[in-house]
Amino acid sequence: MELFDGHAHLDDEKFDVDRDKIIEEIKKAGITKVISAGYSLEASQKAVDFAKKYDWIYATCGISPNDIPQQEQELWKTISKIEEIVKTNRQNVVAIGEIGLDYYWEKDESKRELQKKAFIKQIQLANMLELPIVIHTRDAITDTISILKENPVSQKGVFHCCPQNRELIKEALKLGFYISFAGPITFKNSKNANEMINLVPNDKILIETDSPYLAPEPVRGTRNDSRNVRYVAQKIAEAKELPIDTVAKMTFENTCKIFKI
């Protein structure tokens, strides 16, 4: 059984003490492909570096809503640098992301507007480069969907660590996006996880860890890594009443399809 972790942060400082060892153990555990997700200029460059070093790791490059510069001129410069990284390393980059909106941390309306501008600009970048996008959305579902409707994404993309919200999932699927689930669907207080999982057709579902964060049950509260993606797959298998091997295969194929791997 092979598993594909569709979203991890291998650059995170929590891996600084033993990164190479963990990466080796991930591969040995049957997680044969991993996407290292960028969220800032530095993280995007590091994701590319990992993809160059390991032929089974792939990079996404982008500026997340929580990492955008707070001056508009600096924002455009930063996105231009992301474009340069992608063009220089096109064979290693599979998407623009993670990008999107996060109103949980940002309450200032003018700064939320800047998030929207950054999101739209990076959608335009993805369309120019003919790449899918990886979307982060938190407490911003209405604006996220509105922007996607007003700014169609030619190569579609993925709602990463998708919030367990019925309307978001339905609207995302209507727009042709894939839904990626992470550790939260395994949490004991996640009462609607089975319903949310079953809203997603088998050919549109992905799995991820979002490591080193959001470790799933039964290892919740520990440092997460890509080996734990099997617990996410197991939860989906239980909810859909499928063998875990079937879930592993379909999510592997779906991830390869959306990211053209």
Overall mean pLDDT stands at 97
Ends: how far apart? 18 Å
Low-pLDDT segments, ≥5 res: none
Structural class: alpha/beta
The tally of strands reads 8
- The count of domains is 1
Sheet with the most strands, sense and barrel status = 8 strands, parallel
Number of helices: 9
Q: Please state roughly what percent of the residues sit in beta strands, choosing from under 5%, 5-15%, 15-25%, 25-35%, 35-45% or over 45%.
A: 15-25%
The string of secondary-structure elements, in order, is: EHEHEHEHEHEHEHEHH
CATH level-4 homologous superfamily: Metal-dependent hydrolases
Q: Strand order, main sheet: write it out.
A: 1-2-3-4-5-6-7-8
The rough form would be described as globular
Compute the CA-based radius of gyration.
17 Å
- Give the CATH class: Alpha Beta
Secondary-structure arrangement, i.e. CATH architecture = Alpha-Beta Barrel
Q: Share of helix among residues?
A: 40-55%
**CATH fold description:** TIM Barrel
